[in-house]
Amino acid sequence: NMVLASAATVALSSTTHNPKRMSFQMATGTLLGALLGFVETFFLFPHIDGFALLCVLLAPVFVLGAFLGSRPQWAGYGLGLLIFFSIGSVPDNLTVYNPYTFINDYIAMVIGMLICAAAGAIILPPNSRWMWQRLEQALRNQVVFAISAPLDRLGSRFESQTRDLMHQAYGLAISRPQVQRELLRWMFVVLEIGHAIIELRREQATLPVHPAYAEYQPWRIALRVMGRALVRLFIQPDAVNLQRGLLAVDQAIRRVQEADEPFASHFDTSVLRRVKSYLHFIRTSLLDPQSSLAAYAVGQNASGVVHAA
User: Do 152 and 118 belong to one domain?
Assistant: First the structure.
């Protein structure tokens, strides 16, 4: 029972922004369920007969658990009461009235949950520095995902995964506003650049069959070089990789400008004009003074800012 209670507690508390508090609340709810269950099992159940009376006795406990579980600040109490009262106190088809086994099982459940709470507070506290670094790295890796993942439904998968990571991070950082702001800045730059990259990949996937759009064209090669530079930048952001990324984007823009467009130059019919617009969008995002990358752009010269404008 201790292993079962620990597994259930870990599974349920890991989805919350404060696993330690959830585990402790579930332990308290289980203790309340043990007290109510002891009274019902050994003092009330032996004196009833029939399913209707059983429902009458169980209903108040379930109503109390549902009420507590519906309140966000008390959700752990409700979960512990409902789940472990049902496991330990609801009568079996052949009920055995053994108080020693009953008490032993509930003690094991409560101890297992308290161990989970201690582990959440001491071993894996949600406000530890490594947690923020992992979440930040996971957000940045979404750009790598946008560059390398299969193109089928990539836009929706990229958006969903990025926002899901942000939702987890925001909940975990509920008492750390500075960390929340930094993670939000990373999310915005990741979404901007990631969606631009996905649009670039879609344009290349639907290119007309023409020598001007072949894989060996300089502008296609420059796009691949830019992709590798962005991967390095978002895996390990620093001033050197930011400079390399900007140079790669500039090179791609120049190659696209130098390429011959075989069809009409209107935006709707010109692949290269659309590609160039996405490249300028990526460059603007890299130079955004409000983004997290701005911390690595201290060494940028004035000409780079003028060119971005």
Answer: no
Q: How far is residue 285's CA from residue 146's CA, in Å, rounded to a whole number?
A: 16
What letter would DSSP give residue 124? Answer: S
Residues 161 and 303 both lie in one domain: yes
Do both 217 and 147 map to the same domain?
A: yes
Contact call for residues 292 and 233 (beta carbons, < 8 A) = no
| Total domain count, the chain | 2
The residue from 76, 95, 123 where one domain ends is 123
The reply to whether 88 and 213 lie within a common domain is no
Supply the range of the domain harboring residue 84: 2-123
Residue whose entry in the numeric block shows the structure tokens 């390399």: 244
Q: Could you say which of 94, 123, 152 is where a domain stops?
A: 123
Burial of 273 (0-12, 13-18, 19+ CB in 10 A): middle
Q: For residue 5, what are the contacts with CB-CB under 8 A and spacing of at least 6?
A: 30, 84, 108, 109, 110, 112, 113
Residues 86 and 180 in one domain: no
pTM: 0.66
* Pair (156, 141) in one structural domain: yes
Is residue 70 within 8 A of residue 78, CB to CB? The reply is yes
Q: How long is the chain? A: 309
Quote the longest CA-to-CA distance of the chain: 92
Report d(CA 38, CA 93) in Å as an integer: 18
Digit-by-digit pLDDT tens for the chain (309 residues) are 677 778 888 788 777 777 788 888 999 999 999 999 999 999 998 888 888 999 999 999 999 999 999 998 899 999 999 998 988 888 877 777 888 989 998 998 888 888 888 877 776 666 666 777 788 899 999 999 999 999 999 999 999 999 988 887 777 776 778 888 888 899 999 999 999 999 999 988 888 888 877 888 888 999 999 999 999 999 999 999 999 999 999 999 999 888 887 766 666 667 888 899 999 999 999 999 888 898 887 655 433 443 433
The residue among 181, 24, 200, 31 whose CA lies nearest residue 109 is: 31
